[in-house]
Design brief:
about 100 residues; alpha+beta; two-stranded antiparallel ribbon; 4 helices; elongated
Length: about 100
């Protein structure tokens, strides 16, 4: 059972880190004000927040879609990585640095 948990964490980590590669510090203006929804865009992709949900639209070749997705959800990816650091230690007993 321990191998399955390790594999799950490893696969998720690779996917998250793969999306995070090449992401610059984004100048996103995605701020929800009362009744006003601002969008952030990159290339043909865009995102907006509505009622607590994040809507992301991406299009293009596979590489372009991956880059757009990573750029538009960069803050959420950073939060996921921080959570993975904690969960990796909790589930497996080894710190994040062991895997990275």
């Amino acid at each position: 059972m321990e191998k399955k948990s390790f594999l799950k964490v490893a696969v998720i980590s690779v996917l998250v880190l793969g999306l995070a590669v090449g992401i610059c510090s984004a100048e996103m203006q995605t701020v929800s004000k009362e009744g006003v929804i601002e969008t952030a865009s990159y290339g043909n992709g865009y995102r907006f927040d509505k009622n607590g949900w994040i809507y992301v639209h991406i299009e293009g070749a596979p590489y372009e879609r991956g880059f757009q997705h990573g750029y538009l959800v960069a803050p959420e990816l950073e939060e996921i990585i921080e959570s993975m650091k904690y969960l990796t230690y909790w589930d497996i007993g080894k710190k994040w640095d062991f895997f990275c």
